[in-house]
Give the backbone structure.
Amino acid sequence: MAAGGGGRGSAPGRLLRFVVVVMAVTALGSLHGGRAEEEQRSVDLVEKNCVYGNPKHEVSVYVKVFTNSPFLLCMDLARAREELIDPNYLWIGPDGRSLEGQLHVNLTETGKLMLLGFKEYMSGAYTCTLSHKILETTTQEEREMFETYKFMVYAYREADHAYQIFARFTTRQCELQANSQFFEELLKILTSIISDLTCHITESSYKCHSVRVPSRGLLHELFVSFQVNPFAQGWEEVCKQVPYDCEGVTNMRVEEARDRIGEFFKKQTYVLRHEVQTVPTIHYVENSFSVTHIDSCRPGFGKDNVSHWGCAGCCVVCEPGTYSPNNEVICQVCADPQVRMYGARFC
């Protein structure tokens, strides 16, 4: 796997920004040594933001949308270290046409290909044929050699983050009318804390349960749950200011929202310990605050850590025959196999 671009806000994004790893992908890989052997033999395929081909296997490359790909080289590492006589390079794109002269590519005279401003529809197979001559020193006879290299290039995005938050509050009894009023006021306070971040609280709920606590007997507690996501009204306008790294911006905002809410609950413990003489009827249960990370992908993208294990955690463009109409993390299989586009949002 090779990655181009990279973004802030997630471990996969940070990793992909600094490290370029290439995976030689083959359907027979698991029959000949498995994944570890594939990784080991492909380490040498990357050098100075260049991805070398492999005449025996296609090479998977993952490029963050709107960024430039690394240079794809029409040769393997061994060939790059040899002298080539009259080399010629023919690059063919996913549509079967030559890439020579196309505006979205940078082709060098030494066979390097860079894909500019990568978008999901540019995903697919990029094939290069290298031809060069071999001269017999004794007879001066010329022989022309041909080698073909195939790269599968996929657009990816960083996953959008959201957070599931859980906390508990002690109450006098489950039938207390003040329970629902308290819950509504709590949501208002939390909403005001994060409103400037264009984040909002969704899927909020609470349930009251009887809890037997050692040394304290039977207590009644409110189990509060809600999600925080960065798609409150106006988030699109924020994205328009930074269209090429919207995931990074939204993820930073929702992380800030998560931290502010965490600080709010931390202060509840301090107030109960140091600032109140009479404990309120409904009050926070110390250390009950917890956060669960939730990922989602933009329409047309999904996660597949089996097929795209070289970009695990990435939202990779849906391949032909699959689609994603919403922010789920899985590309669904099309009922109509005729759909042959990358990044489909519907079938």
In short: The longest strand covers residues 142-157. The chain has six helices and 19 strands.
